[in-house]
């Protein structure tokens, strides 16, 4: 039986063992997948030990994705852009690092929800690791423009510059959005919601048939999702589908099989309530 795991801290809340067990059932692949809490100063050693002991693949979550990138000896192009890895596998004497978060977000928005990104005006809230991880896949969908808005303007400016070769990317401070034209898609990649906070956004940001996506999920709608719904957004989603889609892409990297995600999303949705 091949061994897989997700490393994080904290890790108790992780749904990845359930998701990968469901994918394994569907595809008839025999595997073990565990959630392992790694001490903050013990990440590199834990990864090395895991692969030395015959582990076949790792997912990496908060707060180790940047460290995973540093540790990997070879990277996918999308991991290089993200400067972070959430998926690792052995690669000769070294480790291959990929990042499936961005493609997970795109698949959920485009394939699952049917939202349109091509030619859309897109607003991305936040400029931390979560925002960086989705920049390249977003720009590859050819939006009309991508505005990155962050509390700390300088970080948005850095991101915008770094991805300027892929399309029209503009940086704004969170507080100077009132002068913006309305958007077709708004994505929340700030961690504000996790602390029960919400950026104070003008409702003029919501265009006709505006689609609003929060990259986090939980039993209750986030503050950002409530703001969107109260202001008559056309569609509102949390990040549960992104979670399952990024897992499906990791599954593909390890097993070259594409599992059905809809049934797993539905099951998880039921268990959140
Ligand atoms: P992650 O990996 O989740 O992106 P991060 O790299 O620490 O975590 O980034 C957190 C993001 O949430 C940042 O964009 C941060 O804004 P700053 O760069 O100005 O710190 C944003 N954020 C966190 N709390 C926020 C709040 N209360 N209001 C607005 N933005 C917030």
From TrEMBL:
SUPFAM superfamilies tied to this protein: Aminoacid dehydrogenase-like, N-terminal domain, NAD(P)-binding Rossmann-fold domains
GO terms (BP aspect): amino acid biosynthetic process; aromatic amino acid family biosynthetic process; chorismate biosynthetic process; shikimate metabolic process
Catalytic residues of the enzyme: 65
Metabolic or biological pathway: Metabolic intermediate biosynthesis; chorismate biosynthesis; chorismate from D-erythrose 4-phosphate and phosphoenolpyruvate: step 4/7
Keyword Nucleotide-binding found: no
Superkingdom of origin organism: Bacteria
InterPro entries xref list: Aminoacid_DH-like_N_sf (IPR046346), NAD(P)-bd_dom_sf (IPR036291), SDH_C (IPR041121), Shikimate_DH (IPR011342), Shikimate_DH-bd_N (IPR013708), Shikimate_DH_fam (IPR022893), Shikm_DH/Glu-tRNA_Rdtase (IPR006151)
Binding site for shikimate: 14-16, 61, 86, 101, 217, 246
All copies of domain Quinate/shikimate 5-dehydrogenase/glutamyl-tRNA reductase, residue ranges: 116-192
Record-stated family: Belongs to the shikimate dehydrogenase family.
Function recorded in the entry: Involved in the biosynthesis of the chorismate, which leads to the biosynthesis of aromatic amino acids. Catalyzes the reversible NADPH linked reduction of 3-dehydroshikimate (DHSA) to yield shikimate (SA).
Protein's recorded name: Shikimate dehydrogenase (NADP(+))
Species this protein is from: Aequoribacter fuscus
Name of the gene this protein is made from: aroE
